[in-house]
Structure formats: C-alpha cells, structure tokens
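Translate sequence into structure tokens.
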Amino acid sequence: MTTRNAQLVTEMRELRDRVVGVTDVVVASADGLLITAETDDVADPECLAALTAATLSIARRAGAMTSKGLLHHTVSRYTDGYLVAQAVGDMALIGVLGDAGLDIARLHAETQASLQRLTALLTSADTQAEDR
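Result follows.
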C-alpha cells in the first residue's frame, strides 16, 4: 500500500471511528472510479463509488435546474440507513454509508475537517505524479 493510499485509508477509518453509525466510506474520482475504500464486506466499494458519483451528478443537476446554487452534499435516507455523498474539491468525492443510527449532524461536522485533509492528500498525490 502506498503512503498516500495508507493515509487516505487512515482518514476514512478515523471518520468511521468518530461518527456513530458510519459503516462504509469510499473516496473516488469525480466520475466514480474508486480511489480507495474503508468498507465492511456488505457493500461493493467500486459500485458504491459509481453510485455516489451518480447521486452527486443528479443532485447537482437538480440544484442547477431549480436555481438553488452549488451543491454542498446530498443525503439519501433509507429504511435501514443512509448514503451521504459529497464532493472533495473538483476532482474527487466521498461516499459514506451509515446504518439507521447514523448521527448526520456529527457526520456533517466531522466531514468538514476530513474533506480538507482528503483534498490535501489527493492534491499532493497529483503533484507528486506530475513531478515524476
């Protein structure tokens, strides 16, 4: 595992530990290609990454069509849990699955700091790749 990937997984694992009810976290490119995941065996990480990208795309389009402004995040609530999708800058996204007890307010608060760290990790990885 690369240093960048290990740091991404650590960040996702810490988010799971800090927020009650988080079961799975994926980081993907804006088009839904999996970068890395911290998941239980229930969800397919590649599928979750693609679905999160599609969810964000539809929510962005809805915001544009209704003149509601830029999308911050989207929350889908189901009988047995949640899917939360949020952009990480312009090039990536984070998808969070949670059980029915997910603390959405805590997730929102904790995600803000995580997004900054994820953006820094992803940006530094892009910069390192360009330097080679």
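Note: The two ends are 19 Å apart (CA to CA).
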